[in-house]
């Protein structure tokens, strides 16, 4: 049923008025339909735009994810290269420090053993070979040199009183000038050093 049929049922309205009202109503309805279609078109366009933006956002996120993975991969590779580089440098530095520590320990050991040689009157001609011998038996632990698990001072004190030490320690000199010079005998340093070397296996 259209608008005109509805108006005909209303009593007291002339046919001309029916037509006029029908035209106005149809015009309003037509405007509303146009407005509705316009709004629907806008909604469709907006939906299409939002969908396109969402698709762009999705693609952007995917590309960023890929970039992040690539960056992380490169970072991990760079980290490995850096770790390898610094590991080599650390190993090199450690070797240098060990070398310097060994050299320093040698100086300290030589100083201490020389002092013991002086205290116990060890023959200077035998000191070099004896130093090598004692050093081969020593180890450095808890800031002290040990030989056969004994501190250097204790070990050397016992050694100096042993039979092994007698050939290396100078006999006490007698006071009295000529008698001392008569009893003193020259030391064959070459022969004595050879004996030390053979005895201690150097």
Q: Would you write up a description of this structure?
A:
The structure is a single chain. This protein is mainly alpha-helical and 202 residues long. The chain is built from six helices and three strands; from the N terminus they run αααβββααα. Among the domains are: 3-66, no CATH class; 120-171 and 190-200, no CATH class. It has a three-stranded antiparallel beta sheet. Strand 2 and strand 3 form a beta hairpin. The protein starts with a helix and ends with a helix. The relative contact order is 0.06. Residues 176-187 have low confidence and may be disordered.
Q: What is the C-alpha radius of gyration, as a whole number of Å?
A: 55 Å
- Mean pLDDT across all amino acids: 75
| Structural class by secondary-structure content | mainly alpha
Strand order, sheet with most strands: 1-2-3
Number of strands: 3
| Form type | rod-shaped
- Measured by DSSP, the beta-strand proportion falls in under 5%
The total count of helices amounts to 6
Largest sheet properties = 3 strands, antiparallel
Distance linking N and C termini: 130 Å
Helix and strand run: HHHEEEHHH
Low-confidence spans: pLDDT under 50, at least 5 residues? 176-187
């Amino acid at each position: 049923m259209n608008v005109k049929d509805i108006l005909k049922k209303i009593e007291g309205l002339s046919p001309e008025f029916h037509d006029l009202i029908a035209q106005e109503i149809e015009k309003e309805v037509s405007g509303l339909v146009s407005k509705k279609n316009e709004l629907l078109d806008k909604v469709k366009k907006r939906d299409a735009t939002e969908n396109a933006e969402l698709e762009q956002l999705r693609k952007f996120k995917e590309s960023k994810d890929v970039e992040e993975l690539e960056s992380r991969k490169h970072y991990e590779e760079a980290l490995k290269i850096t770790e390898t580089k610094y590991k080599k440098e650390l190993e090199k530095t450690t070797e240098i420090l060990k070398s310097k520590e060994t050299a320093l320990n040698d100086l300290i050991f030589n100083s201490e053993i020389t002092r013991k040689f002086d205290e116990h009157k060890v023959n200077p001609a035998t000191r070099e070979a004896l130093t090598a011998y004692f050093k081969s038996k020593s180890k450095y632990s808890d800031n002290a040199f040990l030989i056969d698990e004994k501190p250097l001072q204790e070990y050397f004190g016992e050694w100096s009183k042993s039979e092994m030490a007698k050939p290396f320690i100078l006999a006490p000199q007698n006071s009295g000038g000529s008698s001392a010079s008569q009893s003193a005998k020259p030391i064959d340093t070459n022969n004595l050093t050879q004996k030390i070397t053979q005895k201690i296996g150097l």
